[in-house]
């Protein structure tokens, strides 16, 4: 979906396909047919943006077979879909029964992360619509925090510098400008936007910036105004923002609140949980660890890294951090000149919701994704953006 900003520029809204993960090219093509096109039809649009997730094997198949890449682009056009952004965070296995810590491998100290991201940049340059010259890729925020020592940090920095050089060369070759955005996430080396400033300021040029995931930012209790002001002061760009909402519990000391939270503690994904205390941010790596005992102080609200559907916050006594999303969105695009032009709804946890809230059919999932995009569209038009055909 495209929108005209009051300054005349185009803002793109998409949804991320990691909600229906596939490891192979055949699986990606099936996604377009079974999920993405039905969502577009529900929205009544001739064109829908998707934030494509290409796992290792799918990316390899495309990078080594030009005919397959041309076929994917033709299939996107045939189904009324367009790609201006890729989700390069998960490498493989995102559809596994247990993902947890595995999603952070390989990290940026591993040469395979650089190789994979380079492949994604080349693929995106080939998939961009003819009238679009800028693409974005969100990626791992360096690494999970443990075992990331000075040697690993140096290797990651060197890899990012090489990536900048490759992105420069890619633009010279194709005329397409691809930016990569580190996505701060609780528990990672770069947990907050503030953590990103140091590593990014050391890089040449402006090819690499920050992807603001509004669930992650809210989970870490970051103040939107402070976060964006610090990035602006450091001259760090926001190539992309992911529109998502975290799980919020206002009174976690109450037994009924703990019980409600426990229903969201599930075995597939990691749900880092945080609370803000007088001594600073405290947290656990997973929601189950928080609700099981007294590891986390419960004198103030808890927030968990669980992407809840934007249009359907959980029932009381829980809620979502949708107001944080609205605040960030206002500061990103509800301003005279937008801070980012690529927005992506990323609720990949539909099938990890408590059983009674999960979609049971493809139709129900498509209805839910369309409802999320409708909410996002309304937020944008309320900020003065005009939806384009």
Describe this structure in words.
There is one protein chain. The chain has 389 residues and is an alpha/beta fold. The chain contains 12 helices and 15 strands. The strands form 2 sheets. The chain has an 8-stranded parallel barrel with strand order 2-3-4-5-6-7-8-14, surrounded by 7 helices. It has a 5-stranded antiparallel sheet with strand order 11-10-12-9-13. Strand 2, helix 1 (25-43) and strand 3 (48-52) form a beta-alpha-beta unit. The model has no long low-confidence stretch (mean pLDDT 97).
List the helices and strands and how they pair.
Elements: E1 2-4, E2 10-16, H1 25-43, E3 48-52, H2 56-63, H3 66-78, E4 81-87, H4 111-127, E5 134-139, H5 150-174, E6 177-182, H6 193-201, E7 208-213, H7 214-219, H8 224-233, E8 240-243, E9 245-249, H9 255-262, E10 273-277, E11 280-284, H10 287-292, E12 302-308, E13 318-320, H11 322-333, E14 342-345, H12 362-382, E15 386-387
Parallel strand pairs: 2-3, 2-14, 3-4, 4-5, 5-6, 6-7, 7-8, 8-14
Antiparallel strand pairs: 1-2, 1-15, 9-12, 9-13, 10-11, 10-12
Helix pairs in contact: 1-2, 1-12, 2-4, 4-5
């Amino acid at each position: 979906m495209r929108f005209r900003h009051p300054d005349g520029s185009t803002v793109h809204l998409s949804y991320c396909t990691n909600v229906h993960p596939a490891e192979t090219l055949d699986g990606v093509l099936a996604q377009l047919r079974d999920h993405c096109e039905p969502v577009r039809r529900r929205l009544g649009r001739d064109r829908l943006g998707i934030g494509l997730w290409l796992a290792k094997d799918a990316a390899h198949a495309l990078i080594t077979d030009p005919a397959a890449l041309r076929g994917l682009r033709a299939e996107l056009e045939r189904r009324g879909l367009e790609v201006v952004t890729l989700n390069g965070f998960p490498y493989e296995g995102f559809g596994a029964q247990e993902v947890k810590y595995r999603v952070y491998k390989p990290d940026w100290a591993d040469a395979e992360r650089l190789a994979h991201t380079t492949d994604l940049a080349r693929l995106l340059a080939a998939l961009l619509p003819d009238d679009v010259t800028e693409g974005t890729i969100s990626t791992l925020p360096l690494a999970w925090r443990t075992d990331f020592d000075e040697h690993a940090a140096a290797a990651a920095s060197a890899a990012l510098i090489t990536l900048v050089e490759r992105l420069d060369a890619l633009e010279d070759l194709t005329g397409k400008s691809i930016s990569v955005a580190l996505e701060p996430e609780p528990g990672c080396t770069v947990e907050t936007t503030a953590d990103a400033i140091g590593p990014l300021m050391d890089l040449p040029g402006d090819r690499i910036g920050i992807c603001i995931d509004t669930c992650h930012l809210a989970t870490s209790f970051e103040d939107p105004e402070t976060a964006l002001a610090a990035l602006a002061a450091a001259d760090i760009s926001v190539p992309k923002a992911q529109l998502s909402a975290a799980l919020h519990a206002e009174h976690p000391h109450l037994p009924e609140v703990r019980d409600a939270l426990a229903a969201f503690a599930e075995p597939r994904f990691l749900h880092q949980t945080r609370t803000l205390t007088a001594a600073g941010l405290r947290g656990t790596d997973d929601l189950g660890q928080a609700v099981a005992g007294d590891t986390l102080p419960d004198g103030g609200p808890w927030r968990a890294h669980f992407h809840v559907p934007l249009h359907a916050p959980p029932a009381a006594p829980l809620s979502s951090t949708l107001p944080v999303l609205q605040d960030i969105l206002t500061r990103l695009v509800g301003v005279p000149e937008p801070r980012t032009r690529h927005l992506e709804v990323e609720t990949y946890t539909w099938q990890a919701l408590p059983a009674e809230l999960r979609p049971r059919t493809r139709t129900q999932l498509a209805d839910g994704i369309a409802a999320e995009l409708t909410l996002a569209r309304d937020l944008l038009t309320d900020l003065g953006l005009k939806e384009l055909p």
